[in-house]
TrEMBL record, chains A, B:
Cross-referenced SMART domains: PKS_ER
Keyword Oxidoreductase: yes
Keywords: Oxidoreductase
Tree of life domain: Eukaryota
InterPro entries (alphabetical): ADH-like_C (IPR013149), ADH_N_2 (IPR041694), ER (IPR020843), GroES-like_sf (IPR011032), MDR_fam (IPR045010), NAD(P)-bd_dom_sf (IPR036291)
Record's protein name: Enoyl reductase (ER) domain-containing protein
Stored Pfam families: ADH_N_2 (PF16884), ADH_zinc_N (PF00107)
Organism: Tetradesmus obliquus
Sequence ranges assigned to domain Enoyl reductase (ER) in this UniProt record: 23-348
Amino acid sequence: MAPIEVTSILFKEFVNDGKVPEDNFVVNKEQRIDPEADLKDGQIFLRLLYLSVDPYMRTRMRKMESYYLGSGFEPGKPLQGGCVAQVVASKAPGFAEGEVVSGMLPWSSHQIVEADAQKGLHKVEPSLLGKVPLSYFVGVLGMPGMTAWSGLKKIAEPIKEGEVALVSAAAGAVGLIVGQLLKHVYGCKVIGSAGSNDKVALLRELGFDAAFNYHTTPKEQALKEAAPDGIDIYWENVGGPVLETVIEMCRPHARIVACGMISQYDLPDEEKYGVKNLFHVVTKRIKMQGMVVADYYAELGKEFATTMGKYVTEGKVKAVEHVTEGIENAGKAWVEMMVGGNTGKAVVKVAAEDPFPVKKE
Amino acid sequence: MAPIEVTSILFKEFVNDGKVPEDNFVVNKEQRIDPEADLKDGQIFLRLLYLSVDPYMRTRMRKMESYYLGSGFEPGKPLQGGCVAQVVASKAPGFAEGEVVSGMLPWSSHQIVEADAQKGLHKVEPSLLGKVPLSYFVGVLGMPGMTAWSGLKKIAEPIKEGEVALVSAAAGAVGLIVGQLLKHVYGCKVIGSAGSNDKVALLRELGFDAAFNYHTTPKEQALKEAAPDGIDIYWENVGGPVLETVIEMCRPHARIVACGMISQYDLPDEEKYGVKNLFHVVTKRIKMQGMVVADYYAELGKEFATTMGKYVTEGKVKAVEHVTEGIENAGKAWVEMMVGGNTGKAVVKVAAEDPFPVKKE
């Protein structure tokens, strides 16, 4: 095998406040890998198939202590995120050529990695190969799916049938799955907010009982119509004034799963929105709890893979993807995702061909 | 028995914003009770021994939906709160003359009440009579004690030995018990904030590892010194800027028991403090949960009575009381308590003589 040209997306520099511009993602093609000469014992040589662009990555682009994975990105080095990759060559026990893995990996088209467990690299469920697109393993069957499923399980449960749930950023990667689980698995009345009429239409199509475009409908009005008796479960993706409005509308014993607060990520501290009605947390016995999905894999990872695999193949939960072609466009894809340019899971297709295409029946 | 003159404290009117003045508590002596003529089957005739003045009552003085007990106080009628009373006469099975009960009762020196269970009236543990002052049954062995014990159990647990805990309003009725439980039962490092040097001295005496006077020491400085590595458990009694500072200092997986937010009770909505750093709830996986103690009695009431009775008689948890004499002074006692005039549990002694005095050994 001749040396291979590696395309990487490098993290240029920290951006503490404001939007992260597209040119902060630098395409680099300088690296070469010669698998035969470079691959050492205990290592595997991977080619990237899909990479995932996610909002949580914003936190790692700020020069600050991050509790996600312990640290920010390293300037001048490749970004890192959820990826699906195929083993091209292996000198590590337990990994064979042709197998497909997923995990947190650098944004490099080809790479040699240590195969040890600490990397969180694991093989995708073989029984699903050819049944679902491989991109699902960074979506509904990957981190966003695990986020939705485990957040409901660990923070929102116990959930009673008929409870009223609101999902913000409902047409995003996590929101779409949360809403479908709440509707089709838990039997809740589900309301979604999203940023365009197309997204609202999609939410209705997927079974949401109500959905509104927050750009065109005042949220107080939309929520009063959709949830006249208040809200029991709030899946929090946005923060700021939306959180304040929802707290006002919470029923006693409401649960707020604080998964993200995207409206606040780019703001300098002094411009962040001050939530004035936290007093209701006491009187209404609201539980608001933050989550980082990495905490739950050890306990729930296997159960998730089985359960969600079943939901997806049965059609109970539908995957919606927003695919960008080519690793060179990963920065653009991330920037667009951050302003809601995606509907459903934003993924970047890195390898041209899918080694396990889904057969039409 | 001749008709008895009843002294009641009536609730004058709703006060939505600002401090509730002392003259909103109206002493009334117009009612007469003739126990022989007035007492019907299923009823008991009680004389009040102690009544409790508590911050949560502020919520019921506002004309708004309250989730505490379902409603505000009724203008022109007696206020209501935690009380200890003695049965003078009974026409209800299960209650005998001379027995001591506690529960939510009107602020009337004498009263006839239905004895049914819905009132939440229950007999105080007979084995403790003469061993502890009866006032403890509205304090460390009553609602404030149950609040402290059950809030830690249901929201803060699991608690690891050596975790760092902060208690605000730590010299108040609930705070003093929370701090002692965290220190002497759970083995935490406990920090207390309070509003005077005398209170701070008391906290140290009771075993708090650190304590500061928030009037004279900037909270950021005091907390950085006392908890340089951050806070794991925060018992929230005050809200506002203190909550914001604590969120900033929370360690990952911190728990905030939202028991009260006294700094915000009197403020009109637009003047309430906006907490700007709730984003940390996500990244640090903070759990903030509100509590109303009434929710926990059915599940935990008996266990509390046994457990806390043991802690108190063993001296593991010490009761500190601030006693005002005479039901006529109940309004004044409440108003003073709201500005921190009390150290420990604020109670009003209604009957001149204690029927079960504690014997000195």
